[in-house]
From TrEMBL:
Protein name: Histone deacetylase
Origin species: Hymenobacter yonginensis
Origin: domain of life: Bacteria
Alphabetically ordered keywords of this record: Hydrolase
Domain Histone deacetylase: 22-284
Pfam families the UniProt entry points to: Hist_deacetyl
InterPro entries to which the protein is assigned, alphabetical: HDAC_classIV, HDACs, His_deacetylse_dom, His_deacetylse_dom_sf, Ureohydrolase_dom_sf
Amino acid sequence: MLSIAWAPLYAHPLPENHRFPMLKYELLPEQLLREGTVPESAFFVPQPPPEADILRTHSADYYQRLRDGQLTRHEERATGFPWSAQLFEREVTILGGTLECARRALHGGVALNIAGGTHHAFHDRGEGFCLLNDQAAAADYLLAHPEFNVRKVLIVDLDVHQGNGTAAIFRHEPRVFTFSMHGARNYPHRKEQSDLDLPLPDGTDDAAYLALLHDTLPRLLEEQQPDFVFYLSGVDVLETDKLGHLALSRAGCRLRDEFVLELCHRHGLPVVVCMGGGYSPRIIDIVEAHANTFRVAADLWS
């Protein structure tokens, strides 16, 4: 059975003008339960982790100023969010959810966070609606504990935006391989260098996208021999997305998820999935595309 991290506060810390993109955090669990993809017992409510598990990845100065509401105006603008205590609680809870997902995936094969994928957060700053880097912190957590027997981590970032914060955090860490397949002309305009970047032209469709992924990911698994995979399954690759500029159909997005997750399943690799972005004008396009990721996981790890 799947393990899925979700907390009510995922959806509620933001002003009204930020509310629409956050509706998916309320609607997705409801959809998965209503259609019977997962039972209610699949969900767990994550908790904020010990500060040591955050400070392994983020600088103490940045974390403490974020916690205490002391970011400069410039830093706050870069995150895209007005600071609040509830926003901070949301961010550390999301990070805690991904850490707990990592622990659960070691035993159950897969765990998913109905949030997370905050890949624009750097060691010492936040950017692009990302304040703390949950997948980076979870990778550092696994590597710091020898009892987990994780020696190599692969981060598969298929959000439409490059995982610049994640790339920078692990620039000098050979035990983490960062793979980002993203829109070439999309945010961030100044890219960092991942271990492997595949920038895509505007309008990339299902056939071109899937062919490149099929050519790349099996080779990475063979070359890198990871013990653990983090998958960022952003649905801002959809043609309907108002920010993405790629042209995947909902069916193509599901085929992407099937390929990534089936490879992990076949190789016996534990995997944590985080949702990442999705900004289609119709909320049904966002929720259905995200729901497909969970449906695929449920079919494979049933």
